[in-house]
Amino acid sequence: MSEALPKYDSVLVIDDHKMVIIGLKLSIGDLFSNFYHTREGSAGIAMGKKYQPQLVIVDNQLPDLAGDVVVREIRRYCPEARILGYSFTMNAEAIRKMCEAGIHGYVDKSEADLELSHAVAELLAGGEYFSKEARIHLPSARCGPPTGTGN
User: Fold this and answer.
1) Contact, 63 vs 39, CB < 8 A?
2) Could you give the domains of the chain?
3) What is the pLDDT of residue 90?
4) Which CA distances in Å does 60 have to 21, 97, 113, 125?
5) What CA–CA distance (Å, rounded) separates 64 from 30?
6) FRET pair for 35, CA 20 to 30 Å: which of 24, 57, 81, 127?
7) Cα 43 vs. chain centroid, distance in angstroms?
8) Average pLDDT of the segment spanning 27-31
9) CA dihedral 6, 12, 18, 20 (to 10 degrees)
10) What does the alpha-carbon distance between residue 105 and residue 151 come to, in Å, rounded to a whole number?
């Protein structure tokens, strides 16, 4: 008999690629009672405010807003949410902006599913997770909640 996976309340995926959303639902969807998703940053902010997800997975490049802008707003409305940057954009400037906005982790979309699973588990346990590729570009800037948010 296999052990039942823990069930968390909700995850919100904000990514403009439909196939990424489908892949995330297949790989981590069973961990959550509710799997919310949108392809635009502005809609993601509204959904975050409405649903108060435990985990938010945000692409760095969205059609309407930059990922760091979305992260700042999600942090404002969902201060308890754990936020994972999930993108093909792996450069120091992009990661620095996402860190300053308040992410708790960053994973390259080209990484294996196992890397994503480790990141999700670590964030849900209250930790941080930055893939090897992200750590290469990780700025000395502090990641996690921005200063002045009370967290």
Assistant:
1) yes
2) 8-137 (3.40.50.2300)
3) 80
4) 14, 9, 19, 23
5) 29
6) 127
7) 15
8) 93
9) -50
10) 16
pLDDT at residue 140, rounded to an integer? 53
Closest Cα partner for 102 from 140, 59, 137, 149? 149
Give the pLDDT mean for 135-141.
Answer: 68
Tokens 């439909």, located at residue: 18
What pLDDT, in 10s, does the model give residues 72-129? 999 999 999 999 999 887 888 889 999 999 999 999 988 777 889 999 999 999 999 9
Question: Which two structure tokens, joined as six digits, stand for 119?
Answer: 């990141």
Q: Which helix (H) or strand (E) segment is 26 a member of?
A: helix 18-28
